[in-house]
Amino acid sequence: MPASHTPAGDPDVVTTTGETVLEGTVLRGREFDPVEGRVVVEDGEIVALEEDPVESDGIVLPAFVNAHTHSGDSIAKEAGGGLSLEALVAPPDGLKHRLLRAADGDELVAGMVRSLRYMERSGTGAFLEFREGGVEGVERLRRALDGLSLDATVYGRGDSEVLDVADGYGASGANDTDFTEERAAARAANKPFAIHAGEVNASDIDPALALDPNLLVHMVHADENHLRRVADAGIPVAVCPRSNLVTDVGLPPVEDLLEHTTVALGTDNVFLNAPSMFREMEFTAKLYDVSATEVLAMATHAGADAAGLNCGVVEPGRDARLLVLDGDSDNLTGAQEVVRAVVRRAGTSDVERVVLA
Ligand SMILES: [Zn+2]
C-alpha cells in the first residue's frame, strides 16, 4: 500500500498554497485520455501536466461539477416517499415548502453544511444551485458555504432583487407565473437566467424557450422541435435522471439531447437523492446508450461550460479543482478500463484526495 494511502471514508479535502503535485493515471483533457504522469498545481491553478512513469496507483481527474442541486431541503431527506412530484415540490404548499417553512434558519443552514461537506468529500468541486427563499435563501447558502471550498453558482428565486446577491436567476417553471420581468432583470444585471422545463410534461418548454434562457433543467419531455430550438439557440441542458425516476415523470432523452447540445448531470433535490455524482454517473451510464467518456464529460466540463467556470478539465491553465481516486482500492483494483471504472464502479470510498483550488 503506498504511503499516501488515506483510510477509506476519510478523504483529504484540501486547498493548495504554493506548489502541489498529484501523481498517477491522469485523465487528460476533455476526452479523459489516460496518461501516466503528474499534474503540477501552483496557487490553485494547473500549471503543467508531465507525462512520465510514476509510482502511484492514483487516478487523477477533474472534480465533479454538479449541474443542478437544491440543497436547501437537506433537513427533509426521504420525506414524502411515494407522493407525486406536485405534492412534493410544487410551490407554495408542496411538502418540501411546508417543511422548509416550519424549520428555523439555523436548522436549515446546519442541514446544508452537512450536505455540502458530503459533496466535497464525494469529489464535487463546483455546483449549480437553484435556491428558494429569495435574498434570505441565498444568504443562508453563503453562510453554509463559509469554511468550505466548493465553488457555488447560485441561481436565486423570488423578486428580481435576489439578483443583487445571487449569481443568476433560477425560475421554477414557465407555467408557474410570468417570468418576463425577472428575465429582463437578469439581462440588465448581466447575469444568467435558468429555468426548469419539460419535467412533468412538454407544456412549459416553448414558454421557457421564449424567455431565451441560458440554461434549461430537466427536458424529460423534449420533442424533436424543442431539440432543434435548443440546438439553434445553443442552450445547455442539465438533466437529473435519478430525480426523474424518483418522481416518476419519465426519463430525459439523453442520447437525443447529446446530439443537439451540451448536456450536464445534476442530482437535483437533496431530499430526494444523495448529492453524489458517482451515483448519478453510474445510473446514467447504465440507463442509456452513452459512452463512459460522455458520461464523465456530463459530470465535469459540461456543467463547468454551462456556468462559465474554468474547471472540469485536467489541462494547464485550468483552476485546480481535482479529484484523486485510489486505483488500488478493494473496489477499483484490477480495473481494465479506467474511465469506465470511474464512471460505472467508483464511489465515495475510493476518494483519496479532493483538491479545491
Ligand atoms: Zn430543480
From TrEMBL:
Domain (Amidohydrolase-related) ranges: 59-330
Name by which UniProt lists this protein: Amidohydrolase family protein
Pfam families: Amidohydro_1
Keywords carried by this UniProt record: Hydrolase
InterPro entries: Amidohydro-rel (IPR006680), Metal-dep_hydrolase_composite (IPR011059), Metal_Hydrolase (IPR032466), MTA/SAH_deaminase (IPR050287)
GO molecular function, one term: hydrolase activity, acting on carbon-nitrogen (but not peptide) bonds
Domain of life: Archaea
Lineage, highest ranks first: Archaea, Methanobacteriati, Methanobacteriota, Stenosarchaea group, Halobacteria
Keyword set includes Hydrolase: yes
PANTHER family: AMINOHYDROLASE SSNA-RELATED, CHLOROHYDROLASE FAMILY PROTEIN
The keyword Nuclease is annotated on this UniProt entry: no
